[in-house]
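Changelog note: in this version the structure field was regenerated for every chain. One regenerated record is shown below for reference.
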Amino acid sequence: MKSLVAVLLAVVLLAGFTPALAAWQVVSQKTLPSQGHPESVAYDPEGQALYMSNFGDTLKPSLKDGKGFISKLDLKGAVIEAKFLPGPQGKLHKPKGLWAAGGRLWAADIDSVWCFDLKTKKGRRLALPGAKFTNDVAVADGKLYVSDTAAGCIYLVQPADFLEVEPKVRVMLSPPGFHPNGLWPAPGGGVIIAAKKDLGGLGGLYQARDVGQMTQIRGDLGRLDGVAMLRDGSYLYTDWAGGGLFLLSGGGGPMKLAGGIKGPADFALVPRGKGYLVVVPDLVTGEVHLIEIADK
């Protein structure tokens, strides 16, 4: 029997396949109704809360109507404050990607990025040079990364906390035919990127360093939106073409963890025991999906 297994494994390896390292599976799933068009959810580990960006009633991602907002939720998805931000000091139009850390919340909004204090609600808008469609944000090591899908670039803002200081802003990455969306901090620095390399093709996952070097992790996956890396090195991503949440693990092919989501947008990853709670907003229907996964 052992010899037969060895032969079969050799055949698999010679065929160019690698067994998956992880076996993540969905252990529970719940769908909550929502208002408007939620685009991104961020987990605040210090405050143990969720923040969700919302376009409002109009699904026009580039419309500057001043009707966007950010809600505060508990970890079960219940709304604590429907219009928590921006507060009286400013207007949000179509806020997209969010990131929460250290008492701050960052939000991408068309041609700019915001930094908010979560206690005082004080906020500052930072216009980004040449920005057309800022889509997602990620913060690591005092650096803020901002993707712009239409301009085809990733901005690097230092320091990330620019609420009280004037930051330095530069275009970190802008290769030809590049259309980045979701971002996640990469081990050792830089970011993991969900992006398309051309408008007509499928998107894939990439990794980039601050110096602008980019390598492909896996191409031709779908119409990707959000991305995150799990503790074992597996990737989670949302895919509009596949209508759900997907896993890419250990060199194997993509695996669909949850479906039935018309507009699977940028999600939050909440550690929960040995697994995670994944909070996926549906930009089209306004629903919010609470998907708990565990490594079996």
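Spot check on this record: The chain is about 5% helix and 50% strand. Helices lie at 2-14.
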